[in-house]
Amino acid sequence: MILFLDTISPKPTFSIIKDNIVIHSIQILNKKNIKISDSLIPTFLEIKKKIKTLNNIDKLIVGTGPGSYTALRVGIGFMFGLSFSTNIPLIGISYPEILKNFITSKVLKKSLVMICSTNDQNYLYFYDND
Fold it and tell me: Are the C-beta atoms of residues 33 and 60 closer than 8 Å to each other?
Protein backbone atom coordinates (compact mmCIF):
# COMPACT_ATOMS: atom_id res chain seq x y z
CA MET A 1 0.00 0.00 0.00
CA ILE A 2 0.96 3.61 -0.55
CA LEU A 3 0.33 6.59 1.71
CA PHE A 4 0.02 9.66 -0.51
CA LEU A 5 0.01 13.22 0.83
CA ASP A 6 -1.42 15.81 -1.54
CA THR A 7 0.03 19.10 -0.32
CA ILE A 8 -0.84 21.05 -3.44
CA SER A 9 -4.57 21.09 -4.09
CA PRO A 10 -6.93 23.57 -2.41
CA LYS A 11 -8.17 20.64 -0.30
CA PRO A 12 -5.01 18.76 0.77
CA THR A 13 -5.61 15.08 1.50
CA PHE A 14 -4.06 11.89 2.74
CA SER A 15 -4.90 8.92 0.53
CA ILE A 16 -4.29 5.22 0.97
CA ILE A 17 -3.68 3.53 -2.37
CA LYS A 18 -3.71 -0.23 -2.89
CA ASP A 19 -3.23 -1.85 -6.30
CA ASN A 20 -3.56 1.58 -7.99
CA ILE A 21 -6.96 2.20 -6.37
CA VAL A 22 -7.63 4.83 -3.72
CA ILE A 23 -9.19 2.82 -0.90
CA HIS A 24 -9.44 5.66 1.61
CA SER A 25 -8.97 9.40 1.47
CA ILE A 26 -9.36 12.09 4.10
CA GLN A 27 -9.16 15.87 3.76
CA ILE A 28 -6.66 17.57 6.02
CA LEU A 29 -8.29 20.99 6.32
CA ASN A 30 -11.70 21.63 7.81
CA LYS A 31 -13.72 24.62 9.02
CA LYS A 32 -11.98 24.53 12.39
CA ASN A 33 -8.41 24.08 11.08
CA ILE A 34 -7.58 26.16 8.04
CA LYS A 35 -3.79 25.69 8.12
CA ILE A 36 -2.12 22.45 7.04
CA SER A 37 0.34 22.84 9.93
CA ASP A 38 -2.51 22.82 12.47
CA SER A 39 -4.28 19.72 11.23
CA LEU A 40 -1.70 17.49 9.54
CA ILE A 41 -0.83 15.37 12.59
CA PRO A 42 -4.43 14.89 13.87
CA THR A 43 -5.52 13.89 10.34
CA PHE A 44 -2.59 11.48 10.02
CA LEU A 45 -3.53 9.87 13.34
CA GLU A 46 -7.09 9.49 12.09
CA ILE A 47 -6.00 7.77 8.89
CA LYS A 48 -3.51 5.63 10.83
CA LYS A 49 -6.45 4.40 12.92
CA LYS A 50 -8.24 3.37 9.72
CA ILE A 51 -5.33 1.28 8.44
CA LYS A 52 -4.46 0.08 11.98
CA THR A 53 -0.70 -0.09 11.34
CA LEU A 54 1.96 1.42 9.14
CA ASN A 55 3.44 -2.05 8.57
CA ASN A 56 1.25 -2.44 5.47
CA ILE A 57 2.61 0.76 3.89
CA ASP A 58 5.29 0.06 1.26
CA LYS A 59 5.86 3.61 0.01
CA LEU A 60 5.22 7.18 1.00
CA ILE A 61 4.55 9.70 -1.76
CA VAL A 62 4.27 13.46 -1.39
CA GLY A 63 3.53 16.18 -3.94
CA THR A 64 6.50 18.54 -4.30
CA GLY A 65 4.96 21.42 -6.17
CA PRO A 66 4.13 23.81 -7.47
CA GLY A 67 2.14 25.12 -4.56
CA SER A 68 2.01 27.10 -1.38
CA TYR A 69 5.52 27.26 0.07
CA THR A 70 4.28 26.67 3.61
CA ALA A 71 2.05 23.72 2.66
CA LEU A 72 4.88 22.13 0.69
CA ARG A 73 7.42 22.70 3.45
CA VAL A 74 5.15 21.32 6.18
CA GLY A 75 3.93 18.35 4.12
CA ILE A 76 7.32 17.32 2.76
CA GLY A 77 8.93 17.74 6.20
CA PHE A 78 6.23 15.62 7.82
CA MET A 79 6.55 12.84 5.23
CA PHE A 80 10.37 12.94 5.45
CA GLY A 81 10.17 12.53 9.23
CA LEU A 82 7.69 9.67 8.84
CA SER A 83 9.95 7.99 6.28
CA PHE A 84 13.01 8.42 8.47
CA SER A 85 11.31 7.06 11.59
CA THR A 86 9.67 4.06 9.88
CA ASN A 87 12.26 3.22 7.18
CA ILE A 88 9.51 3.41 4.54
CA PRO A 89 10.84 4.81 1.23
CA LEU A 90 9.68 8.34 0.37
CA ILE A 91 9.08 9.52 -3.17
CA GLY A 92 8.51 13.17 -4.05
CA ILE A 93 6.78 13.96 -7.29
CA SER A 94 5.79 17.23 -8.92
CA TYR A 95 2.32 17.61 -10.33
CA PRO A 96 3.55 18.50 -13.84
CA GLU A 97 5.41 15.16 -13.82
CA ILE A 98 2.21 13.36 -12.81
CA LEU A 99 0.28 15.08 -15.59
CA LYS A 100 2.94 14.23 -18.18
CA ASN A 101 2.23 10.56 -17.54
CA PHE A 102 -1.43 10.97 -18.45
CA ILE A 103 -1.21 13.36 -21.40
CA THR A 104 0.16 11.98 -24.67
CA SER A 105 3.22 13.80 -25.98
CA LYS A 106 1.31 14.96 -29.08
CA VAL A 107 -1.40 16.57 -26.94
CA LEU A 108 1.10 17.75 -24.31
CA LYS A 109 2.82 19.99 -26.87
CA LYS A 110 -0.49 21.84 -27.34
CA SER A 111 -1.52 21.87 -23.68
CA LEU A 112 -1.61 24.57 -21.06
CA VAL A 113 -2.29 23.23 -17.58
CA MET A 114 -3.41 25.36 -14.64
CA ILE A 115 -2.74 23.96 -11.19
CA CYS A 116 -4.78 25.49 -8.36
CA SER A 117 -3.31 25.19 -4.89
CA THR A 118 -4.03 26.28 -1.36
CA ASN A 119 -4.31 30.00 -0.58
CA ASP A 120 -5.90 30.58 -4.02
CA GLN A 121 -2.55 30.32 -5.78
CA ASN A 122 -2.55 29.30 -9.45
CA TYR A 123 0.33 27.94 -11.50
CA LEU A 124 0.52 27.53 -15.26
CA TYR A 125 2.40 24.65 -16.84
CA PHE A 126 3.14 24.38 -20.52
CA TYR A 127 5.35 22.13 -22.61
CA ASP A 128 8.73 23.48 -23.67
CA ASN A 129 10.91 21.60 -26.14
CA ASP A 130 14.04 22.77 -24.30
Answer: no
